[in-house]
Amino acid sequence: MVRKRCLLWGAVVAAATVLAAACSSSSGGDKGDTTAAPKKSITIGVLTDVTGPASSGNKTFVDGVKAGTYYASRNGYTVKYVLADTATNPATALAAAQKLVTQDHVSAVLAESAILFTASNYLTAHNVPVIGVSQDGPEWTTAKNMFSVVGPLQQTKIATTNGKLYKLLGITNLASLGYGVSPVSSESASSAALSAQVAGIKVGYLNAKFPFGSTDVGPEVLAMKNAGIDGLTASVDPNTSFALITGLRNQNVPMKASILPTGYGGDLLQAGPGALNQAQGVYFILQYEPVEMHTAATKQLQADFTSAAITTAPTYGSYNGYVSVGLLVRALKAAGAQPTSASLIGALSNIHDWDAMGLFGSHTVDINDRVTIVGGADNCLWVTKLTGKTFTLVSGATPICGELVPGKSVAPAS
After folding, report:
1. In the prediction, which pLDDT does 15 show?
2. Which N-terminal stretch is annotated as signal sequence (predicted)?
3. Does pTM surpass 0.70?
């Protein structure tokens, strides 16, 4: 099996400089690939935070895309991609998007970025199909060219899922923290707090305006301690999350559970010295089956990662990248013999039963329901706990699912 090697990408040299490297997919699939017909080829852009404050949670998105090209190959498509680094900088993100459209002439963009909302208007104006994860702003629910692999999340609305999880883990007094600059992070922190209250759990501390990417958490830790919290949820990147957990432990705050949406798997390896020790006993949530479940879908994901020579454990970001390619492939199959941006958007607009290549288990999500989706496929979360060097499955939470709470919402982030 021959694989073309990606071009090495260098450092970002200025705020408005785009880091881009053209990469091509494998010329063959795994041992089960018996496709004899020539593969159809498509060039896409990959827009993500390779560097900058948000890179600790997002840079592995590229690994998932690379692994996804092997899935695409088995399905008859050669996916070539151009990598564009936002550098977690608004000007750079916009310049990166512009280059992908005007110079690289990509047919679609796969995206995971904390500041994608700064470039989304441009991509929408140019009718570029965007596939990725709705982690940054409301454009995933308002822009008809944008399709989130976990559904266009309505973070201002409330599902019972988070509250049920907090109760399962014994939390009685919750602290919730999110980034102020990221609308989805801010709204997620507030909605998690309200979900806890719906479940009858006290919210002793809520901060939905924390500085983006900061690890200066001393005042927040002391405030949480004074509030008597025994549980933490943080809708932030791993560098901020682990700083919080370290601070709480140093202050001897007795915790029932710390719950993080990022940091699972390989993310711990890039979170700094001692991260593995600090993450002991921490709970990590995913919107997909974790590889520890050893299902057919997770085994295929791991096989494709191996084919792509990715040796680190899958992360939330790499799951998103892998599944984004899978959604692209599904759209390609319905977009005609010579897919265009318009036909891809048309195909994506007709998908209402997305199962993330089986990684949602028995659940599906309507990626075009831009009104009611709160927490992904059937409002389900899969939860693991770090013990030693192993992520263990949490009984009652693989998955734990909830329902929309009528009449409850939080204010949109300003």
Report:
1. 31
2. 1-20
3. yes
